[in-house]
Every structure is written in structure tokens, then in C-alpha cells.
Specification:
The chain has 7 helices and 11 strands. The chain is of the alpha+beta class. The protein folds into 2 domains: 145 residues, 2-Layer Sandwich (Alpha-Beta Plaits), CATH 3.30.70; 58 residues, Molybdopterin biosynthesis moea protein, domain 2. The termini are far apart. Pfam families: Ribosomal_L10 (PF00466), RL10P_insert (PF17777).
Length: 257
């Protein structure tokens, strides 16, 4: 039988790469924010969750702007060296854009932001690789919070379960995790299923720059600000003309809203 012309395979895994135009726009947005907002902070994220960061963006959108994406692009926006910086000492912020960090541009005062950051946190479910903060043991007996249909899935995760008169039942005590030990993917899934969050989403303000008082370090580090060179954390420098090349950095959450 001849193959139909309508029978075409379409790959759902292919998406357009974010190219040079998108990256240049981020740089322009950052430079515009330097002019617009009086205060800039470099924040570090613990237990990153996209949904919580989006909530913060929504909450702060009237007088602030969050950037969280490629560190090297944000560095270029601020200026990686004294020669490139668009305001005095902004290159010191660039030096600290390493790891899971972002930029906060805001009209709120430095004191207000620092006090908020100390108090703000949100509980979230831990992922694999996270060190358990406590030992969790499930006693033998019925697990009435689960429907009978999920029992095979629980068994596939390593739990000693069976159906007893249509009720999911543990036939022996089961240790989900032990304090201080790294969670496996299976353990992380079980903790989510039993509604046991362990991780804490937090923002730590590493340093700040204000038009009024300039640069200030809030968390001590070993970065030498006298060296007129920015370490991107990637082991290489990125020139403007190279920005259209494919990069393997994490793009799951950028500054576009």
C-alpha cells in the first residue's frame, strides 16, 4: 500500500535556539535597568524552583526587575572589566555572577531588600542529590491516603506494599531516607507522594551596587577585585561576536516574563 503524503513524522523535541538577537536584547535590557533603577543586587538561589521565582517576579513587578539566566550574558550587560563597565564598580558585580545567581534591579532601598531577604523563604520538596534533613520511617500498616491504582507505582519505587482488601498496605516498616544521606530519585518521589517537603527555597544577597553609595559586599568571598578580569565560572571569556553560538548553560528560566 503506498504511503500517504499526509503521513509525516513530526519531532516534538525540536525547539528554536535562543540566538544572537535574544541575547543582545537581554544585554540591552540590563543596561536600560542600570539607568532606570537606583539599586542592584546579586542574589544566590538555594534550592531553585522556577514557579517560586516567577511568583517573586509577579510580586515585585511594579518597582523591580529580576534577571535569572546565563551568567555570561548578564556579565556583558554590566561590563566584565573596568574598561567595559557602564557605571563605576559594576564590574565587581559581574565578578560575582557565578553559579546559580541572578540580578535584582529595584527601587526599594538597600536596607529594605536585605531585611526582606533574611526573612523570606519557602518550603519545597527535595530533589535527588539533596541531603535529607531528617530520617523518615513509615510504619507497617494501611496507607489510606493512596488509591489502589497507585500501588504498583509505589512498589516500583521500592516500597514494600501490597493491596489488602483494596487498600494500599505496607507489610513491613519502611525507611524512606536517613538524615544526612543524599536522596535518590526514588526517595525524592516518595517524599513528594507522602507530602514531606525538606528543601527550603531562599535568596541570599551576595553584594549590591547603588547609585548613592556604590559597591558593597554582603557575603565574604575570595574574589580579588583588584584583578581586572571577570571569571564567568565557565572557564572562558565570551566575546560579543561569539554570542550566537550554541551554549550548554541552563536556560530553563531566563528574565523574559
Amino acid at each position: 500500500m503506498p504511503r500517504s503524503k499526509r503521513d509525516k513524522k513530526i519531532s516534538l523535541t525540536k525547539t528554536d535556539r535562543k540566538g544572537l538577537a535574544w541575547k543582545q536584547k537581554i544585554i540591552e535590557d540590563i543596561r536600560h535597568c542600570v539607568e532606570k533603577y537606583p539599586n542592584i543586587f546579586v542574589f544566590q538561589v538555594q534550592n531553585m524552583r522556577n514557579n517560586l521565582l516567577k511568583d517573586l517576579r509577579q510580586e515585585w513587578k511594579t518597582n523591580s526587575r529580576f534577571f535569572f539566566g546565563k551568567n555570561r550574558i548578564m556579565q556583558i550587560g554590566l561590563g566584565r572589566t573596568k574598561a567595559e563597565e557602564i557605571e563605576v564598580d559594576l564590574y565587581k558585580l559581574s565578578k560575582r555572577l557565578t553559579g546559580q545567581v541572578g540580578l535584582l534591579f529595584t527601587e526599594k532601598s538597600k536596607k529594605e531588600v536585605l531585611e526582606w531577604a533574611k526573612k523570606y523563604w519557602a518550603v519545597e520538596y527535595a530533589r535527588s542529590g539533596f541531603k535529607a534533613t531528617e530520617t523518615v520511617v513509615l510504619p507497617a500498616g494501611p496507607l489510606e491516603e493512596f488509591t489502589h491504582s497507585i500501588e504498583p507505582h509505589l512498589r516500583s519505587l521500592g516500597m514494600p506494599t501490597k493491596l489488602q482488601k483494596g487498600v494500599v498496605t505496607l507489610y513491613s516498616d519502611y525507611t524512606v531516607c536517613e538524615e544526612g544521606k543524599v536522596l535518590t530519585p526514588e526517595q525524592a518521589r516518595i517524599l513528594k507522594l507522602i507530602a514531606k517537603p525538606m528543601a527550603k527555597f531562599q535568596l541570599t544577597m551576595k553584594c549590591s551596587w547603588t547609585k548613592e553609595s556604590g559597591f558593597e559586599l554582603h557575603v565574604e568571598d575570595d574574589i580579588n577585585d583588584d584583578e581586572d578580569k571577570t571569571d564567568s565560572g565557565q572557564g572562558d571569556d565570551v566575546e560579543d561576536e561569539e554570542m550566537d553560538q550554541d551554549e550548554s548553560d541552563n536556560e530553563e528560566d531566563d528574565d523574559e516574563e
